Amino acid sequence: EHKGLNIITMEEFLNRQLTSERPLLRLPGNRTNWDGDADMLYGHLQAQAKWGLWDPDSCIAYFPDSSNNKNPHEYQELYKQVRRDFPTNWRHYFGKPARDGASVKERLAEFSAGRNRLCIY
Q: How high is the pLDDT of residue 119?
């Protein structure tokens, strides 16, 4: 594993969902162990998945930390500030990546250059 990356089992993920204040899933009978029934689990996951057309060339996918209580509109506002205050053309950043220790706004500006939306999931 890498520092900051904690890989967990599906069962652990589902257990966390059961105890979460804002669960993403509802599972029949609160079942968390689906060994031998993966197809049935995937059917439940697909039925509850948030589907939509996502174009990575025009939209940045953002998955807020569930432990962070910030309102999603705050992230949209930050994105609007970056779009207003920094260059939006990707060519501006080509060969000139954000420096080590750059601010969140500087990194977001580079990453969002050429894209026109922030998609919060």
A: 84
